[in-house]
Specification:
Rossmann fold, Thrombin, subunit H, 2 domains, six-stranded antiparallel β-barrel, five-stranded parallel β-sheet, 6 helices, elongated
Length: about 240
């Protein structure tokens, strides 16, 4: 099971040395790694989860366009950083044409790779924090357009959405008022929500926007605190 704060990288290469070096350095940073030897398998791997980094071996793969296109079309991984290993002129040109963020080359210089990945880590961390969804059980009050109130319990909360246990089914697209208190606070966070899914078995999902900037900032700060608490302190 993927942890809510886990940052993940996907490596694509037939070169075991490259896979070993990048995997070691990513793991030093606390980044989980999945490695693939071919583009088709990597594309399937991308569809199975969220990634913050993609490392592609432009020197040895027959084609790289499919995997990068798959990444950019992925709802969850489209903003991932792309690292190219491209040693020759043609492979470097191709990497640049495909919009990679960082380019490295053979022979491998471990210290340089460490420097590049350490620099990129902050960007990956920021992206993961932006989409962080905190699993937490909090009382949530919903008010429907009709005025009816529902007393629910959160399953998880993000900056602009939440999943809930609900006492009765909700209709997709319904506008709804949301109110809940953060842990260790009696002050309510209030917002305007929209029902985006309902499984008809007691669970539903909302997108929402806080009513005030102050509420939005308090929610964001609270989520950031939970995010960093779940990270390994050595990697913060």
């Amino acid at each position: 099971m993927v942890e809510p704060t886990e940052i993940r990288a996907l490596l694509v290469s037939r070169d075991n040395e490259m896979l070993a070096i990048f995997s070691d350095i990513f793991r030093e940073l606390g980044i989980a790694v999945q490695g693939y030897a071919d583009e088709s398998s990597a594309a399937l791997g991308l569809q199975a989860g969220r990634f913050e980094a993609l490392v592609v071996d432009f020197d040895n793969l027959g084609s790289t366009r499919k995997i990068i296109a798959t990444l950019r079309e992925s709802p969850s991984s489209k903003n991932a950083l792309i690292f190219a290993v491209a040693s020759g002129g043609p492979s470097r040109t191709e990497a640049l044409e495909q919009g990679v963020n960082f380019s490295l080359e053979r022979p491998f210089n471990r210290a340089h790779i460490q420097e590049v990945l350490h620099t990129a880590y902050g960007l990956m961390l920021r992206e993961r924090r932006r989409y962080f969804r905190y699993p937490v059980s909090l009382p949530v009050r919903l008010r429907r357009i009709t005025g009816a109130e529902l007393h629910c319990t959160s399953i998880n909360i993000s900056r602009n959405g939440m999943a809930l246990h609900v006492p009765s089914a909700l209709d997709l697209g319904d506008s709804i008022k949301v109110a809940f208190a953060l842990t260790n606070s009696d002050r309510m966070v209030k917002g305007e929500g929209t029902v985006v899914w309902d499984d008809k078995h007691g669970k539903a999902g909302l997108s929402f926007q806080c009513e005030t900037l102050d509420d939005q900032n308090r929610l964001a700060a609270w989520l950031d605190n939970q995010f960093y608490r779940q990270l390994n302190p050595a990697h913060v």
